Amino acid sequence: MEGKNFDLSVPGAKENAIASIESAKTELEHALAELNDLPTLDPNVIRYAAHAIKNYLTVAGGCVALLSHALGDSANEQVKTWLEGLQHATKLMIQTVRLLSNAAVAVKLDLKWEKVDLPLLVQRGCEYYADQARGKRVAVVFEPAVEPVYAWTDRVVVAAVLDNLLSNAVKFSASGGVIRVSVIAEPSYVVCSVQDNGPGLTPEDQAKLFQPGARLGPSPTGTELSTGYGLAISKDMIQALNGHIWCESNVGLGSCFSFRLPLYEGQDKAATPSHVSHVTKKQHGAPSRK
User: Are residues 172 and 256 in contact, defined by beta-carbon separation less than 8 angstroms?
Assistant: First the structure.
C-alpha cells in the first residue's frame, strides 16, 4: 500500500484513515501467510545468487588490480599493503561463494602466509570497533604485548576472525560495559583474547559453541542481528591457520574468546601449505550468537 497523508479536519478523513489501516493490515496478513508457504531453501536460487556475487567480486578484484597497476611505484608501502589485502580478501570471498555453489564439495582455500605484526593488526581492529561501541556506551580497551610479537599467518583471515569476536563482544555487552583485548606471546604461539562483561554462557551453551546453527541463550543487548555462524566460521579459519580457538565464560561474569596462532620464527613460505580444504554441510537451527 502506498503511503497517504490524511487531514483529519476534512469530513470523512478519519474514516478513510481507518479504512486504509484495515486494508494495510489485511495485506500484511496475506503477505505473512504467503511467506509460510515459501520453501525454506531453494538451491537453485542460492547457486544463481552465488554466481552473480562471484561476478561482482571478480569485477571488484579487477578494479583493485588496475588501481595497483596505475599507482605503480608511486604508492607507499602502507597503501600497497592495503591494496594487497583487498585483492586477497576479494579472492577469499570468491572462494567462499564457490562453497555456496558446491555444497558438500571440498574446495581449496588459498592462504597467504606471511610475517604479521599481530598487535598492530588487533589495535586497528579495536580502533574500528571502538567507534561502534561508543554508540552503546561500551569501551574497547586494547592491551598490547610488552614486546613486538609476530605471527606466521594470513592477515586477512585473522582480521575476519577478529571482526567476528569484536562484533560479538559489542553485540552482547550492556551499556557501560568494557571490552578488553590483549595480545601475548607464548612458546611457539601468539595469543589474542577478547574479554567482555556481558551475560556470560552456561555450561550447556559452551558445549554447543562453534557449532553452526547452535541455539544459545544470550541475546544482543541492542538492535543488532545475529546469524549464528560467525563462531563456526572463525573456528574453521583458525584451524586452517594451524591455530586453536576457545572460550572461557561464567554466567554473569562475561566471556573471553581467545585464539592461538603460530609464532613467526623465520618460517619459509615454501614450507607452509598454501591451501586447506573445507567441506560445507547443510545445517539446521535457529542460532542466537553470531
Answer: no
List the alpha helices (DSSP H) in the chain.
13-37, 43-71, 77-101, 118-134, 155-171, 203-208, 230-240
DSSP 264: P
- Cβ–Cβ < 8 Å for 201, 218: yes
Distance separating alpha carbons of residues 172 and 48, to the nearest angstrom: 34
How much is the pLDDT for 81?
86
| pLDDT of amino acid 255 | 93
Q: Domains of the chain: which residue ranges?
A: 43-103, 114-278
Please check the confidence at residue 202 and state whether its pLDDT lies above 80. Answer: yes
Architecture of domain 114-278: 2-Layer Sandwich (3.30)
Indicate whether 279 pLDDT > 60.
Answer: no
Neighbours of 115 (CB within 10 A): 15
Cα gap 267→151, rounded to integer Å: 10
**Cα dihedral across residues 119, 125, 128, 134: positive or negative:** negative
